[in-house]
Amino acid sequence: MGQTNATSWRGFVFTGFSRFGELQLLLFALFLSLYLVTLTSNVFIIVLIRLDSHLHTPMYLFLSFLSFSETCYTLGIIPRMLSSLVRGGQDISFMGCAVQMFFSASWACTNCFLLAVMGFDRYVAICTPLRYASRMVPTLCAQLVGTSFLSGYLFGLGMTLVIFRLPFCSSHEIQHFFCDTPPVLSLACGDIGLSELGVLILSLLVLVVSFSFIIVSYTCILAAILRIPSTEGQKKAFPTCASRLAAVVVHYGCASSMNLRPKASYSLERDQLIAVTDTVVTPLLNPIIYSLRNRAVQTALRNAFRGQLLGKG
């Protein structure tokens, strides 16, 4: 118990980028550029959907909350990561690490549930268009969003409690750039089998359930697209569906690779690459694929810029 208290008092040190040496400044410039584009895109989408009455529909409501969730997810990870690239290994307290893990896990789980909700919304819109307005009423939309956020927080809390109940009597160096579950779990000592099983079960519940929901929704959507009589109509609908599925596969592929495997297979290089993809690249893909390529969003953007220009004139 003395060892645990000592580690709790000492906290942890991030050393994930220490081996890159002089390349750290180059990585800092690259990640900062991507982060600013991601942050600006997501915030702009939230504001645009809020201000344009034509975008006050269930689909864009879910898009705005996904952008909000992605923004919160990156805010909890990337600023500290950028700081560690400039200043070298950065300290974080035991409680600070637990808080970061809670929020990063919560927002990551929320993203999964929101993607499932968005798949359901598109299923109702495409497969039962005549019933869409009567089904996707504001009350149901609010319940779906609220359930996604509440479930995300509960699963994030569960993962954090499962890991931080363990004694940390090994090295206090986290070979990563944030308090993710695999690298923190690798520092625990004693019998971690039960905690490892708990993390695996929670991860399976989030990833498998939400991903299965998405696959069923998009399978029905693809079947509906194939039933479109005109080839031209199929060509218009299929690219949008394929691009959204690609974003989902990247998101779930990264999350599954990081969480659905035992501690023994933990690899620093591979996990950092996957984590960078999940925290830097994927949040950038979402506004591009789900919003900025959308025709209604493009029209709203043009109207916003036209109105700004007219106002200046």
TrEMBL record:
PROSITE patterns: G_PROTEIN_RECEP_F1_1 (PS00237), G_PROTEIN_RECEP_F1_2 (PS50262)
Location in the cell: Cell membrane
An example Gene Ontology CC term for this record: plasma membrane
Bilayer-spanning residue ranges: 25-48, 60-78, 98-120, 140-164, 200-226
InterPro entries assigned to the protein according to its UniProt record, in alphabetical order: GPCR_Rhodpsn (IPR000276), GPCR_Rhodpsn_7TM (IPR017452), Olfact_rcpt (IPR000725)
Single GO MF descriptor: G protein-coupled receptor activity
Any Pfam family: 7tm_4
Membrane disposition: Multi-pass membrane protein
SUPFAM superfamilies, per the entry: Family A G protein-coupled receptor-like (SSF81321)
Domain G-protein coupled receptors family 1 profile: 41-290
Primary residence: membrane
Recorded superkingdom: Eukaryota
Keyword field: Cell membrane, G-protein coupled receptor, Membrane, Olfaction, Receptor, Sensory transduction, Transducer, Transmembrane, Transmembrane helix
PANTHER family reported for this sequence: OLFACTORY RECEPTOR
Biological role stated in the UniProt entry: Putative odorant or sperm cell receptor.
Record-stated family: Belongs to the G-protein coupled receptor 1 family.
Protein's UniProt name: Olfactory receptor
